[in-house]
Design brief:
This protein is α+β, with helices and mostly antiparallel strands. The chain folds into five domains: 123 residues, Sandwich (Immunoglobulin-like), CATH 2.60.40.10; 193 residues, Galactose-binding domain-like (Jelly Rolls, Sandwich); 124 residues, Jelly Rolls (Sandwich); 327 residues, Alpha/alpha barrel (Glycosyltransferase), CATH 1.50.10; 94 residues, Maltose phosphorylase, domain 3. Strands 20, 21, 25, 26, 27, 28, 31, 32, 33 and 34 form a ten-stranded mixed β-sheet that branches. Strands 3, 4, 5, 7, 8 and 9 form a six-stranded antiparallel β-sheet that branches. A six-stranded antiparallel β-sheet has the order 14-13-16-11-19-22, with no helix packed on it. Helix 5 packs across helix 17 and helix 10 packs antiparallel against helix 11. The longest helix has 22 residues. The radius of gyration is 28 Å and the shape is globular. The structure holds beta-D-glucopyranose. The site of beta-D-glucopyranose (BGC) has 11 residues, from helix 4. Beta-D-glucopyranose binds next to helix 4.
Length: 899
């Protein structure tokens, strides 16, 4: 039995007992801007949030008091000399700092006390946040580079020595780079981030990163070292999106300020400037898109140690800042999150070895080798093998347009220096792969242990857990998560190999999958800033974001670029925080107004349509109008939220007009069918809310009939897969949805899994000739549907952020059970059920300070319900809306099937 199935049984049986052995309340998870104790906070009024842990049933927060001080002792003593919010009657767990003006480069300590509904006061531990630059005027250093041009292939080193005479209390480095940087002090690499800073539209916004380097500095002589990579800034590889012609393109540069505070309270700033020196490094080529080449013979041992002889190094040159908008990178960084040891290695001949990781990932490999000086080792990374065992790149190199053979795709080149065993791992590139083919120009000694790989992605915390009794379904969930993470690199991408592009459509398709499973708000807030940077004055957005300019011409209709509305809206639903929606409000408006301008009749033909379908094609006008409608609805809801009644009226009238025009055009009332009645044509209007209330039942029934006629197999593309399962589940056909989701023959998600996929593919047909990346997230809605369609966990738009949880579980007859949970801002929400003869045992956890509306599935009746901790009977009462109102707590509910 597979791990997750076993996990289901263990989780299910313990969850009914384990729930909170202790009733002592506590406050935890103190975060500033959704990060724990962050450095480099630029916001003048940062968001502060916390969580009340209180297992008493019905536990609530009735008031809170926030204290902020620059002295942690004050906080311990209950004094908030910078801000004392006072005891504030509120159940909110997120608030904006509203104390005295924050100063840059300052560490603030804070805590929160919460009063629960038993009038107990519970105080949190002390947390901190530290401000950063808080404005361009606070930079001291100069932007510097070497004097090479964009065609220089080798990555530059920069170094500077300095002497510290006094004892350091604390030290921070603020570093902004156009391109990528690796920072070292006294030969030690600083921090565990990789591929910093995140990719932005470099000529509009640059990110700086803050590092605590207190421990790295020492008394006496010190050396600072920087290695700069090209990233997306100086794209030398040539492919169909023309990143090599990006308007911002230049030789990488950086700006650095090192702020040192001594124990005696005095301060010093060491900066980037003319006193730095530069030299080319052994990284003789680096491309974020293709690979990295390293010549170990060019290593300069000790280049970042004090006392190194840099007399042959060159001076640096001043450079203009890439933009006038340099802001803090407030994001979970990209890391080498997971180390993966190959499962197999095969030797094809003396000089060719193929490693198989056993799973598909985004990341890098690291090889440890000894060999003769000048030995050239090539590491080709791919997702599949030819029959002869060699790595096959033909499914992923299709958009690459190399001008010669010096930059092979996904192939690192490592030249040995003959000085013993060394490890090579690229710094400024990542790839999508399962296999690595290692070849060398001379025989080398290699074993299975010579290579490891690292799964890389933005290191967002997990927020979802799932185990069901269906092993294939569990693997689909895992593959979905793998693809989601493989496509999260400070912006969401379509695939980690062929493109690495911020395709908008793929990202909004995956937004719920992402937010049920991961705490990704920081990445999305950054990416929506990229949207605002890219938007034309008339509202138009490019299909890939960030972009060098490609994508304003193609693929950027509402079915893709509605990210501008859909992502902030979903962040609002999942976090109960309207900040992103508010900062995008005018952008959404311009966007919707533009569609209206080009679509006066109410429907729109702008878009790509149901991308990579199985067989049936659905009209672009049908799917694009669904997105246009969704945007208008979101905009009108946002207008209400932000108290803009005129806009609210205007855009709800627009939504009504779109809906009317849509139904006039596509709906056949005689038959209850949209257009020609394909799965996408029926499910998209249902899911996006365009079907008139009184027609829903017929349309849903027709959809179910259509699916049955398709033998419960998918016949959808990217847009249809977003709606199909939800449209069925939400309209009384959960069993039909499950049959599709659990399908194991073509075309289905399960078909991929039974054929060995560990990530989601780009094409339903595993033998297709094109669109065949093996790590796309665009068919990833199933990940979210598992939480919704089986666990029934939905955010409540009227009480967002899971302040109230909508629970609509479906007790699928052919599935023994599920155990599903989501970590919300309030804490863990759990929905787990298991068939027991004719009954179902349903176990629920609702975190403190939150409530739920539980909708019992049709055909079931509650037999008994009790508090899962005390065993005490609880009477669940039905409210007017047909739901049982649950307070915070843990419940064990037994239901029986009525007939
Ligand atoms: C990408 C997709 C993307 C599409 C747009 C493809 O090349 O990989 O995932 O959404 O283009 O049509």
């Amino acid at each position: 039995m597979k791990i997750r199935v076993v996990a289901f049984f263990i989780l299910f049986s313990i969850s009914n007992y384990l729930i909170a052995q202790t009733h002592r309340a506590s406050v935890s998870n103190l975060r500033c801007e959704y990060l724990h104790n962050p450095l480099g906070v630029d916001s003048a009024q940062p968001r502060l949030s916390w969580m009340l842990n209180d297992a008493e049933s019905g536990a609530k927060q009735v008031a809170f008091e926030l204290l902020v001080s620059t002295d942690s002792l004050n906080i311990v003593n209950g004094e908030g000399d910078v801000w004392d919010s006072g005891k504030t009657t509120s159940d909110k767990i997120l608030t904006r700092y509203a104390g005295e003006k924050l100063r840059p480069f300052t560490r603030y300590f804070w805590s929160v006390s919460v009063w629960n509904n038993r009038n107990e006061k519970v105080s949190s531990p002390v947390a901190s946040f530290e401000t950063g630059m808080m404005g361009m005027e606070n930079w001291t250093g100069s932007w510097i580079s070497d004097d090479k041009d964009i065609h220089e292939k080798a990555a530059p080193y920069f170094r500077k020595e300095f002497k510290l005479e006094k004892k350091v209390s604390h030290a921070r480095i603020y570093i902004a780079a156009a391109g990528l940087y690796e920072l070292s002090i006294n030969e030690e690499e600083v921090g565990d981030h990789v591929l910093d800073p995140g990719y932005t539209r470099f000529d509009r916004r640059n990110l700086y990163v803050t590092h605590d380097v207190t421990k790295e500095l020492k008394n006496g002589e010190n050396a600072l070292g920087i290695l700069l990579g090209n990233g997306w800034y100086n794209h030398q590889s040539t492919a169909v999106w023309y990143f090599h012609k990006a308007p911002w393109r230049n030789r990488p540069a950086f700006c650095l300020d090192l702020h040192i505070t001594y124990e005696d309270g005095s301060k010093e700033i060491i900066t980037s400037g003319k006193d730095w020196k530069t030299s080319l490094s052994p990284v003789v080529f680096n491309s974020i898109y293709t690979a990295e080449h390293y010549d170990a013979r060019l290593e300069q041992p000790g280049w970042c140690s004090p006392g190194f002889d840099d007399s042959k190094w060159n001076g640096v040159i001043y450079r203009a800042a890439p933009s006038q908008n340099i802001v803090s990178q407030m994001m979970h960084p990209i890391r080498h999150v997971e180390k993966i040891v190959p499962q197999r290695m095969s030797q094809l001949n003396d000089t060719t070895f193929v490693f198989d990781l056993g799973r598909n990932i985004a990341g890098v490999s690291a090889i440890t080798l000894a060999g003769e000086e000048g030995t050239i080792v090539r590491l080709k990374h791919g997702e599949r093998l030819y029959d002869n065992g060699h790595v096959d790149l033909s499914n992923i190199d299709v958009h690459y347009r190399p001008v010669d053979d010096s930059d092979p795709f996904q192939t690192d080149i490592y030249i040995l220096n003959g000085k013993g065993e060394k490890t090579f791992m690229p710094r400024f590139n990542y790839k999508g792969f399962q296999y690595v083919e290692v070849t060398s120009n001379k025989p080398i000694n290699i074993s299975k242990e010579s290579l490891v790989a690292y799964f890389m992605h933005s290191d967002v915390p997990e927020s979802g857990e799932l185990a069901t009794t269906n092993p294939t379904l569990n693997k689909i969930w895992e593959a979905t998560n793998n693809s989601y993470l493989s496509n999260l690199f400070a912006y969401p991408t379509d695939c980690p190999q062929r493109e690495k592009n911020g395709w908008t459509g793929d990202a909004h398709i995956a937004i719920e999958t992402g937010l049920y499973g991961f705490d990704g708000i920081t990445v999305y807030e950054k990416w929506l800033a990229d949207h605002r940077d890219e938007q034309q004055p008339n509202g138009v957005l490019p299909s890939i974001i960030p972009t060098d300019g490609w994508g304003y011409e193609w693929g950027n209709g509402p079915d893709w670029t509605s990210t501008i509305a859909l992502i902030p809206w979903n962040i609002y639903l999942f976090y109960g925080d309207a900040s992103l929606l508010e900062s995008c409000y005018e952008n959404i408006k311009r966007y919707v107004d533009h569609i209206t301008q080009i679509s006066p009749l109410g429907t729109t033909t702008w878009g790509l349509g149901d991308w990579v379908p199985v067989k049936s094609k659905s009209p672009v006008e049908l799917t694009s109008t669904c997105y246009y409608y969704a945007d208008a609805v979101i905009l009108s809801e946002a207008a209400k939220l932000f108290n803009k009644p005129a806009d609210a009226n205007k855009y709800s009238a627009l939504a009504a007009k779109i809906k009317q025009a849509f139904n006039n055009k596509f709906y056949y009332p005689e038959t209850g069918i949209y257009a020609s009645g394909t799965q996408t044509e029926l499910s998209a209007p249902l899911y996006w809310g365009l079907v008139p209330e009184q027609e829903k039942e017929r349309v849903a029934e027709n959809l179910a009939i259509r699916v049955e006629a398709d033998q419960f197999h998918l016949d959808v593309g990217l847009l249809g897969q977003k709606s199909i399962l939800n449209a069925l589940s939400e309209n009384g056909y959960a069993e039909v949805a499950y049959k599709i989701a659990a399908q194991e023959s073509y075309p289905s998600w399960g078909w991929w899994i039974v054929n060995g996929a560990t990530t989601l593919l780009e094409n339903w047909d595993i033998h297709a000739q094109n669109d065949i990346s093996m790590n796309h997230i665009m068919f990833g809605e199933i990940g979210a549907w598992l939480y919704k369609g089986l666990g029934g966990i939905y955010p409540d738009p009227n009480n967002p952020g899971f302040k109230n949880v909508i629970l609509k579980p479906s007790f699928i007859s052919t599935l023994e059970g599920v155990d599903i949970s989501h970590q919300s801002l309030y804490g863990e929400i759990k929905s787990a059920w298991k068939h027991k003869g004719k009954s179902v045992v349903y176990s629920v956890i609702i975190p403190a300070n939150s409530t739920a509306s539980l909708y019992i599935p049709d055909g079931y009746e509650i037999q008994k319900s009790s508090d899962a901790v005390t065993g005490k009977k609880i009477n669940l009462l039905l409210g007017n809306d047909g739901s049982c109102k649950l307070q915070a707590g843990s419940y064990l509910i037994e239901l029986f099937e009525k007939k």
